[in-house]
Amino acid sequence: MTPVLETRSATVVRGGDRILDAVSMAVEPGEWLGVIGPNGSGKTSLVRVLSGTWTPDAGSVWLHGEALSSYAHRERARQIAVVKQAPHVAFDLTVRELVMLGRAPYRGWMQSFTGGDQDRVVAALKAMNIAHLADRAVPSLSGGERQRAFLAQALVQEPTAWLLDEPTAHLDIQYCFSFFQHLKQRQSPNEAVIAVVHDLEQAARFADRLLLLDHGSVVTSGLPREVLTTEHLAHVFGVDATPESTPHGLRLQVHGPFVSS
Ligand SMILES: Nc1ncnc2c1ncn2[C@@H]1O[C@H](COP(=O)(O)OP(=O)(O)OP(=O)(O)O)[C@@H](O)[C@H]1O
């Protein structure tokens, strides 16, 4: 199967440091890949490389078997949605207008949005429970409401590759859970999700596979229970923790940090 997104020995050098060091990874159609690792391990850098925001200094990135660099900007924007912590928006767009921008890659310059676009926007506003905010100016929203507006924008974009970088950081527990659940339920067999999530139990719950990064390199990748082992938690995260399987997924009993002397 051709991966949706793939890096081959992707290396990024910043300030003399290899912040990504020959990272090779791939996500298959229909797969949900959780990217985990301690602060500064390279998770956001990997998202930047996969989205084309950064070009690797060495190695390459592939989207549906073609070099990412060969894609026209508009086609790349149809295929890849990036959702990170929602930025503050200075301009006075309404929520509906912000969400509609997710359809822009499907429309030519000065081409009007269609009834189909409007329907998708209505459905996404409803799915993110922000239909009542549709005519509000985005800068007036709370952090969580703004985040849900950006998630709705990504939904209407209908990408084949989702790049999520802590997309639920502003969301309370209910919306956090319901967004991941919604995305999981509507994920089609040709769509792939790559999600950077700090909450390891959350990452394990939704991901088919986890990719563990440390110091810009891949430590391992595999099923959540193969990656979240006592050994990896100790060596990579520096915590004394015991993973436990429960009917609701993997739980981590964290006994405390290892303090280096
Ligand atoms: N533009 C840059 N110039 C120099 N160093 C950078 C740049 N961007 C990132 N870095 C460094 O690269 C390393 C990896 O950063 P990155 O943001 O990818 O980590 P992360 O795993 O996402 O971290 P966190 O969990 O804290 O969000 C860090 O040491 C960071 O300081």
From TrEMBL:
Keyword field contains ATP-binding:
yes
- PROSITE patterns this protein is in? ABC_TRANSPORTER_1 (PS00211), ABC_TRANSPORTER_2 (PS50893)
Q: Which CDD domains match?
A: ABC_Iron-Siderophores_B12_Hemin
User: Where's the ABC transporter domain?
Assistant: 5-240
Any one Pfam family here would be: ABC_tran
Task: Reply yes or no: does the keyword Cell membrane apply.
Answer: no
Keywords, comma-separated and alphabetical: ATP-binding, Nucleotide-binding, Transport
Domain of life, per UniProt, equals: Bacteria
SMART domains reported for this sequence? AAA
One MF term from GO for this chain? Answer: ATP binding
Task: Return the SUPFAM superfamilies for the record.
Answer: P-loop containing nucleoside triphosphate hydrolases
Question: What is the protein name stated in its UniProt record?
Answer: ABC transporter
Please report the organism this UniProt entry assigns to the protein: Longimonas halophila
